[in-house]
Amino acid sequence: MPNPRVLVITSCTGEKRCKPENQLRLDDFRDPSRLRDRQSELAEYACQAGEIYTGMQHLRLMEGVQALREALGVDALEVEILSAGYGLIPEHQKIVPYEVTFNGMKSQEVDEWAQHLGVQDAVEQRLESADLVFFLLGDNYLRSLQLPIQTRPDQTLVFLASGGSAKKLPDLAAKTFVLPLSNQEAKRYRYGLVGLKGFLFKQFAEAVVVKPELLNQVKTNPEIFQQIIDGEVDQPSEQLALTSLLDQVPTTPKASNTSQKTTTGRSSKDEFLPIPDVPPAANIHLGMQYYIPEWDDHVDPNYDFLNDRLTPGRDPHHDEVYAHQIYDAPNYDGILVSKVVVDSSKKKRARVEAVGIHDFIRYQGPVMGDCGAFGYVKEEEPPYNTVEILDYYQNLGFDYGVSIDHLIVGPFAVPGIREKRYELTMKNAQEFFEKHQAGDYTFTPIGVAQGWNPETYAESVKENIRVGYDYIALGGLARAQSREIVEIMQEVRPHLTPNIRLHLFGVARINAIPVFRHLGITSFDSASPLRRAWLGSGANYHTVSSKMYTAVRIPPVDGHGVRVKRLIEAGVAERDTLKGLEQKALKALRAFDQGELGLEEALESLLAYDELLELPKDGKADPVEQAKRRVKHERMYRDLLRDRPWQQCNCVICQEVGVEVVIFRGNDRNRRRGFHNTRAFYLRFQELLAKLKEEDT
Ligand SMILES: [Zn+2]
Description:
- By secondary structure, the protein is of the alpha/beta class.
- Helix content is about 45%, strand content about 10%.
- The chain folds into three domains: about 5-20 and about 50-95 and about 100-240; about 285-525, Alpha-Beta Barrel (TIM Barrel), CATH 3.20.20; about 540-680, no CATH class.
- The strands form six sheets. An eight-stranded parallel barrel has the order 9-12-13-14-15-16-17-18.
- It is globular.
- The N and C termini lie far apart (about 55 Å).
- About 45% of the residues are buried.
- The site of zinc ion has 5 residues, from helix 29.
């Protein structure tokens, strides 16, 4: 078995090789042109990120990295540094000294700055090509990832984190292991807390040097990481294996969700989940509605695709348009807006307060508000009180408002914690309903049901009905398997009466819609069709026939993309060469679209640029990886070019921007593709509903 592709993500440290008076400060990073000027002033201090930091954690870590590379080869692992100035950067990137750290920032400042740096996107993108990932991050650095992040069940993540952060880690699709570190561990491992993460990684690396198969063992069973650094690795693994507590809850991250795996050309028609042999829920006549979660999903209506230019002087909210402003009719029955999204900046909150939620998102259909429980999953209690939230929904003009719940997932689904969260969610729901009845509130209240198995979910739904709700939402199931949701719904169904509506948070799976509907779900939300436009490869462009295509990667050489920067630094190609290939690829695709160029020639130009985009390992281009990429992408791109799906789509986006919609390049193409995907999903959903209704009668 080949070794897994290992990646280490570590935080930058305050201690650096040199500290010139005029080193970069936070304000320098806010403005790209100022940053360029300031960087050239400091050019004499430039050095590779992997070498600039001299903090204990970094030094010990790099000693471990060095040992692994000497033993297993230079590409045994890759290191990325999470810099509070530069964002996520590869160790070989040249940077100049700066004085910026996430430590000491307030939570909201961390969130805002991390968003500005695009930390989450960069990490998600970087993780795509890794199998085993180690995170050596302090509390605020970990926070800057804005967990949960997109991962896959075939990946393994090992977190070295403080005890406090460890407790708050959300449930992820990847296998995860957290090693909580506090003063106690510092004492136990006889190493100062400041550099402990680096020191422990080095211990691990030294064990792997002796026994390289440990890498695969940790990949399969990450819990043994602890035994390895404790020097207990040769004991029988049965004694060591900690049963993953996550296995006991429906939201187990090990569970791969088959309905999310999409294979091109596969039809989902024959893959509908079977409907159990029970009568339909009493509320089935209420139909089913799709809500889309909103997260600043808008585009520049006058974007200049040929020159890749935004409208000069545009206001990034006011002058942009949402999907429902582009299409004649919205591709959803309602919009879900989380409080965390409204509060993402002071300016935004103030604007929403001034005009109300409907005018802010320029949508007059139903708007549901919730508190965004994933945002505070790690806190002991939700950071809001009921009256404040009731007033918030009312004052901003929401149509539906969700009670304050607390997720029972991952490490928070363990006995002792889950009961507390269950009680808290129920208590909040009761208080929310009572105060809503007593006050002058005009929106419809929704009570949240949480649980950790079918019985507790059913109990929670029953309790919400007893309190008086006629609209209830099931939380904490976004990552659960459809089969598990079906089991829960089978317990819930008998309690439903004809007037009860039931919302399912965060789940949109065409193949499960008939069974969910049969068992009593009347609405659901998900941004998955939208986000798939720019997450992963192979299924970026959806169609109403359910076939999915990849988007063609043509990243701008002149943009801020980490990928292109790395390629240039690694000497894969000169900037001018890349730029030539990039422009040739764009021209070729447009000429192909116009019928002026054949498929093979177009494909050749696309692949000539694309194959160079394979990220270099350890600063060196790997011709084998490049060739692999070429083979894989040739198949996917050929499929796309042969079928020309963008020419067959009658949606206004595909009609107007044409082939630009299948190019993976910047917000204005990628998000438009997401809008198109949402429409494709909604049309399929509508068609399916009509068919199901017909079958009922
Ligand atoms: Zn379209």
